[in-house]
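Chapter review: from sequence to fold.
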Amino acid sequence: MKNPITAGLTALVVCAFAASATSQEPPAPGSVILLQLRDGRVQWGTLQSHDPEGFVFSRLDNGGVARLSWGMLDPVQEHELELQLGYVDLTGDEYMIDADQLVTTGGTPFTGVIVDRTADAILMKTLGSTVTIRKDQIGGASTTVRVPARDVYTKQELYDQQMLAEPPNDAAGHYAMGQFCERIFDFAHAVEHYKLAAADPKFRPSEVPNAIARATEKGKSQDQLDYLSDVDSDMRQKKFDKALARADAFQSKFPTSALIAEAKKKHDQIIKARDREIATQVARQWLSRSEKLAHKAALTMTFDQAVAYVEEPMKQELLDAVLKDVQQISKDVTADMVKQMWAARKKVRYNRASYGLGTWLLGKDGALKGMDDEKEKKDKEKAKQDTEISKERADFQKKVEQFLKNQEMTRKAQSKDEQKEDREGFWKDYGALSKGQWLLAYFVENSGLFELAKHPILDNCSDCGGRGTREIAVVGSNVAKSMVGKGQTGTTAECPVCHGIGRVRRISFR
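The token string follows.
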């Protein structure tokens, strides 16, 4: 049988603790409290220290010291103690809206709500103000994104909108309005509406006092919460250096804040978000800058100069250009970081570059390099089996092959100056876009910076069908007497389009 005096004393102490737990004052240092654990056990003791992750507790019965996480406590006591000690949950259900996102040609993102369009500009409401974006500076169509409402409207604007849309007229309405205010971080208005809801003693008598206490406690940290919210906003707008500096300055600005650990988490989140964005831009800009540098060389350089440029100087210029691009995201990016991110890029799909009608400039060996000779041989054998080739056709094929050999020998016999003159003459008349593609293909294939598909794509010349020659009909007075009556009314000439190569070379890369 329990001692009635002891039982009464225990009940008195428990009641005293319950009263202190519902107050807004934290336990005094060294004061004895009763812990109610989630599994039903209870322990008397004192709080030695605490942080956002848990606390150190010293047992009263044996002096044992243990570190416990907040989650080990009974949920009600966990909430009350965290509330008293100033540990506020920042991961609540923040009010989100659909917004428009535009990216300028320079890569700057704008997120907000489009409120008007003029002949040459778009008006967008963002961060509580309206900005004008010129249409000729917009890189593409707007996309819809989900963002915190406070990225577009001020807290007062959101509060006024909600009051106009759903004005509260009873306890339930005020309670819902208080919840909305918490979601937009407007804790002063939240307390006001929760107190109006408390005027009805029958409405949620156990929840409304807790809501008032919660919003009041959060209101004490309003400036800190707004500060961290601004950090989040900077991060979402990809202002990573600014966000990082603000997150790192939080501890010195609020040295006694219970949210210092949250600010440190923000630091890690910003670093990860920044690196993801840089990696994405490196992968995108590497190809974009390669195309631009190749096109620039095509406009200003001779053939020999352009080839020499893409073989060496273009590598460094490409790295410098991409580095400059991504340093707009963060000034902390280095050339080594760019190289590492390019090497670690996700290789999802292949891109293509073509030598076009300039394939012959590579020479026959370069133009046909990588062609599956065995497959071509089998295809030819199959074609011979499937098709009955007349003797005349076979004789003609032999003449074509002999002609191409003779042409190749003649070409090799040309002096270097003659060969250079042929190439430079063609290059001068070749279109700028085609020259740019030629140089890009050459750079991709020879720089060692890209992953190439196993085999190139070798399409047949559209003019000669891949033969490398044309059959020229000879009629009228051009027919030699020796050819009359022998069925020979034509002659063979090198295809002027592919210069005897018979193929157009394309490269797949990523």
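Two observations follow directly from the output. The mean pLDDT is 82. Residues 260-300 form the longest helix (41 residues).
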